[in-house]
Specification:
Layout (H helix, E strand, L loop, with lengths): L31 H14 L8 H10 L12 H12 L4 H25 L4 H13 L1 H7 L4 H22 L3 H14 L4 H16 L3 H4 L1 H23 L3 H8 L7 H12 L5 H13 L8 H15 L11 H16 L3 H22 L12 H5 L9 H14 L2 H4 L2 E5 L2 H10 L8 E3 L16 E5 L11 E9 L14 E7 L3 H8 L4
Parallel strand pairs: 1-2, 1-3
Antiparallel strand pairs: 3-5, 4-5
């Protein structure tokens, strides 16, 4: 009959009776740091090639309206963007430096995960190199994205969970809870990852992780840190849920395309490394206690497919899987120079191809019709914002002074509102109003405003019955013929069909 597991001390986790102490992890190779530094340098070198992304414009403005939450996101990333812009107004380099550093840290952590599961120098380098050149890492880290910090938080959480499990230490579980709490203030998906992993541990073990006092303390820390945002959402009717519902539907081929898209998240020629990470805990007895990681990945994938979520929502888990799969890959390479050469070529090819697709390397005039726009349309949303604001300013100046004094600037989306608020002062433009997401919280036009310059709506049918008597004043052109979201849209002068306070609930939208 199996003996009961001994009660664990406060400082660690219980070992099974007769279980041998775990060996110390291999030495940390110093070559991880050059890989991370090169990645950071490349990201920073390309950080000013195009312009602001619409989300960055929105983040900066949102950070200037500090709150415990916003309809579509927690407060951490907007506050960070506002701070970077306050230090050096208009500097894309400084604005995007935290993202580049977060990506470099994630690359280092992938190597640390490989080390925790017994990977030596080769395994650590494989994990770090595959993470550094991966398409998801380059795409979300050369500008500011909540996914960048989701990726970092999830990888730190995963590394701590692996460390606690492998070393039978309880303290990393407390730190993991702190990481989840802070991560949720950047993106709520960090909490979903933690919930999936806890559920997988409950199903597959080791359940001693859940019985540990450090885990309980970590869970309390996570809840405590995330509580202000949860309370804000609850008090505002859970707008984040409305946003999630309205944007549901994978842009990468719907539910059918969800799983195939995972094959290109890292690189089509490097899928074997992270697939090895999914398999390793089931194939290696020494890693059996880490089965909760591939199981958690599967639970999240299933949840996102059922909920019709975006395929990139799983991106944050790939550094962890690459770390788990790197030791198996290193063993597969051992003694086979041809295999080693093939992996090096695959990493270099992935770096070159992913860089072209994910980074702003093509001239802006060459983007239209390119494979870059076909695979990464977000690149197009970083082009044309200064010209958009100039067009609005030209329409504004055309108005007679008497009309201008009673005219609001109303935009269809937060990108346009952010562009006007951030770039419009040099042209004498007033602040923008919008019913989109966070802008809906920041006030409505004065009751004395009897006209509105309206941007972002393709037809007047979208405006009726709340804004009418519209006259086209100008048309937006980004100057390079790129068919992005604002290209070719009219700038109109319209009249509100009633008092702004009565119209505002109808003009508010969360997506």
């Amino acid at each position: 009959m199996r003996e009961p597991v001994a009660a664990h001390p406060i400082g660690g986790l219980a070992r099974e009776p007769g279980e041998a102490p775990r060996p110390s992890p291999p030495a940390l190779t110093r070559w991880l740091f050059p890989i991370a530094l090169v990645q950071v340098a490349v990201l920073l070198a390309t950080s000013t090639s195009y312009g602001y992304h619409r989300d960055e414009l929105y983040f900066i403005v949102a950070g200037g309206h500090p709150a415990l939450g916003y309809p579509d996101q927690p407060p951490l990333v907007p506050l960070l963007c506002w701070a970077m812009n306050a230090i050096a107004p208009g500097s894309l380099f400084l604005l995007r430096t935290p993202s580049a550093l977060a990506a470099g840290a994630t690359t280092l952590l992938a190597g640390l995960v490989a080390r925790e599961v017994g990977g030596g120098r080769d395994a650590q380098l494989i994990a770090a190199a595959c993470t550094a050149v991966s398409g998801f890492s380059l795409a979300v880290a050369h500008l500011v994205s909540t996914t960048t910090f989701d990726m970092l938080s999830t990888t730190v959480f995963g590394w701590l969970a692996v460390r606690a499990t492998v070393r039978r230490e309880g303290a990393p579980l407390l730190l993991a809870g702190l990481v989840v709490g802070v991560g949720c203030l950047a993106k709520p998906q960090v909490g979903l990852v933690a919930i999936a992993m806890v559920g997988a541990v409950a199903l597959l073990g080791p359940r001693s992780l859940l019985r540990n006092r450090w885990a309980a303390a970590g869970a309390l820390c996570a809840l405590g840190l995330a509580a202000p945002y949860i309370v804000w959402q609850a008090s505002h009717g859970w707008p984040q849920a409305t946003v999630a519902s309205n944007i549901a539907g994978s842009q990468e081929g719907g539910r059918v395309g969800f799983l195939p898209f995972q094959l290109v998240m890292v690189s089509p020629v490097l899928i074997g490394v992270w697939i090895a990470g999914l398999a390793a805990p089931f194939r290696q007895t020494s890693l059996r206690d880490l089965r909760f990681i591939p199981a958690g990945y599967a639970l999240l994938a299933l949840a996102y497919i059922i909920g019709n979520g975006h395929a990139y929502y799983l991106a944050s888990l790939y550094p962890l899987l690459l770390g788990l799969g790197a030791p198996s890959t290193a063993r597969w390479l051992r003694g086979h120079s041809g295999r080693r050469t093939a992996l090096v070529v695959a990493i270099l090819a992935s770096a070159a191809i992913n860089a072209v697709i994910a980074l702003p390397l093509l001239p802006e005039r060459d983007l239209q019709g390119s494979v870059v726009m076909a695979l990464n349309p977000a690149q197009g949303e970083t082009v044309g914002w200064p010209r958009f604001v100039q067009t609005v300013a030209g329409a504004w100046r055309r108005l007679p002074p008497a009309v201008r004094r009673h005219t609001a600037l109303f935009t269809a989306n937060y990108g346009e509102g952010g562009a006007i608020d951030l770039l419009g002062a040099r042209y004498g433009l007033p602040r923008a109003f919008s019913g989109h997401n966070g802008f809906s919280e920041w006030g409505i036009p004065p009751s004395t405003d009897t006209h509105a310059i309206v941007t972002g709506f393709e037809t007047t049918a979208e405006l009726r019955p709340y804004l009418s008597h519209c006259t086209t004043l100008a048309t937006v052109h980004n100057g390079v013929g790129l068919a992005n979201q604002e290209q070719g849209l009219p700038v109109r002068l319209c009249r509100p069909e009633g008092p702004w306070p009565e119209l505002w609930p109808h003009l508010t939208h969360f997506d």
